Amino acid sequence: MTRPDIIRRHIAVVAPSLQAALIGPAVHKQAMRRIGSEFGFPPVEYQSVREPLSAQQRANDINSASKQRNCKAIFAVAGGNDSITLLKYLDRNVLATSRTPFVGYSDNTAIHNFLWKIGRTSYYGGSTQIQLGPGPSIDPIQSGSIKKVLEGKGYLELLKPSHYEVRGIDWHSPLALTEGGLRSPYPEYLWAGEPKITKGRSWGGCVQTLLQLAVMNELPTPLQLRGAILFLELSDEHLGDGNVLKLVRAFGEAGYFNAVGAVLFGLPPHSISQETAQLAVPNPSAATKLLSAVSSEIGKYNDELPRVLGVPIGHLRPQYVIPYGGTIEVDGVNKTVRAYYEAC
After folding, report:
1. Alpha carbons 271 and 278: distance in angstroms, whole number
2. In a shared domain, residues 132 and 174
3. Between the N and C ends of the chain, which has fewer C-beta atoms within 10 Å?
4. In what residue span(s) does the LD-carboxypeptidase N-terminal domain sit (predicted)?
5. Same domain, 28 and 78
């Protein structure tokens, strides 16, 4: 690992959970090149990217990167399944005073929630191995929102892409470096609730990880989320539509939909499998059917609650990197969603 203290300004790259760089080294190498060329800062790979480490050691990479004055951001390589094991090793004092934005999604929801609880803004999206390394280039939506994170100012309107994919080519294949996954037309957003303008601090993340955090009693209460923008998205480890609705119902019974100011729900990564598990065509009709059911379920608890379902966040490409604990505006009058990017 290059010593970050001798680099004037850089982007730290860490692996809080899955060591995706070891699974697809060529894709990882391309992601590191693109970070430098696309965003203008050299990447510094921490030990967790290259070696199997304990939860404490992986947490220490985040702690260490957060101390570096010249670190522009911390990028997670990928999600995984055990970021919850890092929480007890994250240095609350260091992270509470750090100005370095953490960027990642999926299983990294656990780390975002930790930062949210200590008053920090982080950014949800942008894993290097999934969004930056594969394919012929970085999607403009992806690049534009990451640049906003690094600038620490301004806003983006979360416009609907023309097409999207839910799974790329196997990282072991040379084609993963030059070709993207199979794409389908992106469906229209579903708008519901009172047509008004709502602006608030965001909280949420990957549903599968939020279930883990709920068991650990790590979720904020409805009172703590009063007026917030709640955003939820699903990983490609499918729960089944019925179980998703059960979770939404549980949020309703707990009182969240009578506390938050608005709800965003990411487009589910539903797909139609092809000959191999690595090839899948996105299934927008199935995704939209689930979103309609989710909206109806929320409406049983608060039908006036503004909600936008099908936004490009989470487990798909292209994907907006949005503030977690920062400001999001849902404008039901003009049917726009804006994410605001501020220095952490």
Report:
1. 11
2. no
3. N
4. 11-125
5. yes
